Every structure is written in C-alpha cells, then in structure tokens.
C-alpha cells in the first residue's frame, strides 16, 4: 500500500492545487468598476447595450442595402453584417462609455 503522504494527489485536471487557486483568483478577480445601466430597477452590463445597438445597426443596414438593391454587391453577408455590428457596438462603447 502506498502512503498518501509520499505521493500527494493531483487534482483531476493535472495542475497542482496552488496553481489552480492562483489561476482562479486571476480569472475571478474581475474589474474594479463594472459599467452598468439601470433599467427599471435592474442593472444590466453596458456591453449588453452595445451589443444590442450593434445588432440593430446591422439589421437596419441590411434593410437599407436591400431596399437600394446593393445587398448582393456588398460581399459575403456572413462577414459584412457581423463586422458592421461589431464596429457599431465598439463605436457605441467608445462614445457612450469612453472605453
């Protein structure tokens, strides 16, 4: 029988326990101040507003381009519209929250 004091057990993921604690504390440390928006008494993270603004912008852009007949000449839709949503979301973050 092997003495458990001679062979310390390793956690299931294979990392030593102290390293796991250090990594968890870094990952769970978070930000000092989380920008949030009060909506009807509940606080929502500001990134959620930026994501919604980006998605709405991409939907409006698609409708405008379809109405103008330029939707097919824009390029691959799976790249163009998510890129437009990301750009609008990041621009909203920079303008509204001074990123």
Commentary on this structure:
By secondary structure, the chain is mostly helical. The protein has a domain at 33-97. It is built from three helices and two strands, in the order αββαα. It has helices at 17-29, 46-68, 77-97; strands at residues 36-39, 42-45. It has a two-stranded antiparallel sheet with strand order 1-2. Helix 2 crosses helix 3. The radius of gyration is 24 Å and the shape is elongated.
Task: Give me a quick take on this structure.
The protein is mainly alpha-helical. It has helices at 17-29, 46-68, 77-97; strands at residues 36-39, 42-45.
Structural class: mainly alpha
Low-confidence stretches: none
Q: What general form does the structure show?
A: elongated
Enumerate how many helices there are, as a single number.
Answer: 3
How would you spell out the order of helices and strands? HEEHH
Radius of gyration: 24 Å
- Give the distance, in angstroms, between the N- and C-terminal Cα atoms: 60 Å
Question: Could you report the average pLDDT, rounded to the nearest whole number?
Answer: 83
Q: How many E strands?
A: 2
Helix content: 55-70%
**What percentage of amino acids are in beta strands?**
5-15%
Largest sheet: 2 strands, antiparallel
With strands numbered from the N-terminus, the spatial order across the biggest sheet is 1-2
């Amino acid at each position: 029988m092997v003495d458990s004091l001679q062979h310390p057990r390793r956690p299931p993921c294979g990392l030593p326990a102290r390293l796991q604690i250090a990594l968890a504390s870094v990952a769970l440390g978070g930000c000092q101040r989380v920008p949030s928006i009060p909506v009807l008494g509940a606080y929502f993270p500001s990134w959620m507003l930026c994501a919604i603004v980006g998605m709405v912008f991409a939907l409006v852009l698609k409708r405008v381009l379809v109405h103008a007949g330029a939707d097919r000449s824009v390029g691959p839709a799976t790249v163009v519209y998510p890129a437009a949503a990301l750009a609008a979301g990041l621009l909203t973050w920079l303008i509204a929250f001074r990123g």
